[in-house]
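Late entry, guanosine-5'-diphosphate complex.
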Amino acid sequence: MDGISGAIDCIAAISTPVAQGGVSMIRISGEDALTVAERVFVPKYPVTDIKQMGGYTAAYGEIVRGGQKLDDGILTVYLQPHSYTGENVAEITCHGGILVTRRVLNACIEAGARPAQAGEFTKRALLNGKLSLTGAEAVIDIINAESDGFIAAAKAQRDGALHRRTERLCEKIKATAEEITAWIDYPDEAEDETEIVTADWAAAAKEICADVDGLLDSFESGKVLRDGITAAIVGKPNAGKSTLMNLLSGTDTSIVTDIEGTTRDIVEETVNVGDIRLRLADCAGLRETGNEVEKIGVEKMMARLETARLIIAVFDGSRPLSEEDKRLIGLIAGKTVLPIINKSDLEEKLDIAYVTARLGEPLTMSAKHGEGLQQLESAITELCGIKHLDPAEGFIANDRQRDCVLRAKNHTDAAYNALSAGMTVDAAGAELEAALSCLYELDGREAGEEIIDGVFKRFCVGK
Ligand code: GDP
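Prediction complete; structure with ligand written out below:
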């Protein structure tokens, strides 16, 4: 191809969904992004020369291919290093038709760019030091996030929350490992002093182990934020389960009626409660029944109870506890249960002390009138264990990261055991070095190409 020799490893891709829409955007990144842009874009206003454009500026003009006008569009320019990738970036926005967008991309390819691979823009951001590997992983989490809580957490993560937490931990490990190495290199101290320093290192290793454990624990909270949890609403017919579920989901998924036993099957709905996504199952009433259809519903509910991470048990506060209520309480006591005394707008007739003694402090509310919804949200957050997760502190967000920390833990535990048992310090030093390697892998500093490629495979083209 002639005239394109200047485009040093420039990549281009359609960064908006390939579908009909108002506008589409084609992103070009690389040292010669503006050279490629000059070949496909003729600026008209407010400048007529792309090379005159500063970073973060835009121009209106014509998109051309082989001298032919393809579309009108807007070119936005970012100059290195102040761009997403850290390189020069040109973004061309055109009309949102699938065909026109593909034509603009093809024009960019003909002008010297090559088609970007999945996640390649973000990979360049990583290679140019704009993001850590865990920050890059958070980008895909933001794209896939399905709850406000997880979006906020993933953003903190992209901005380096886990990276900073990992760095602090690495600094601690490095400091102790270096002291040990120095001691090994200059072992001319008196015998009794060896015991003192070994005790100091054991104390330092203990603190390191606690930090590693804390990091591992954050995985569960992060998982709850990302994936949500399976929950079940149980209670006898007419307690108000469907009403509560509808209140949470804001729709009319469940049939709400006052004919007992209407909810015959499990209705599942995903709802966002505060920061958490609940995969919520409204289960059939727990009464003994001869009705075959209802029997199946009861069996399904029992199975769901076994797998649910949270059980929301609804009681009708306007009626005394029935045998059925007591049977349900017996079944779920000991599991993670949020007991709710519903119908707080009516006169209270239920023995609340009985419920409290077996299931813990219940929440009083009126599902019909939406009273107590906020307390319900905060109780669910507390029970799911994410109340104490501070996303700004960073958390383990996926299995790859968890695997690195688990391996680091094996090494830090071994280092602590060696130091506290007064064994040779060489072994402890080696274990700490090995733990460091695992954490560097977590952060991407020592991650091989295969690991990095594995991360970016999850991305879409154009990101
Ligand atoms: P389910 O069988 O447990 O799913 O119960 P439903 O949600 O179908 O509710 C049964 C009846 O109780 C319906 O007539 C609801 O309108 C009513 N109900 C639900 N919650 C409340 C409440 O907080 N106060 C009052 N007064 N009635 C309620």
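The two ends are 27 Å apart (CA to CA). Will revisit in the morning.
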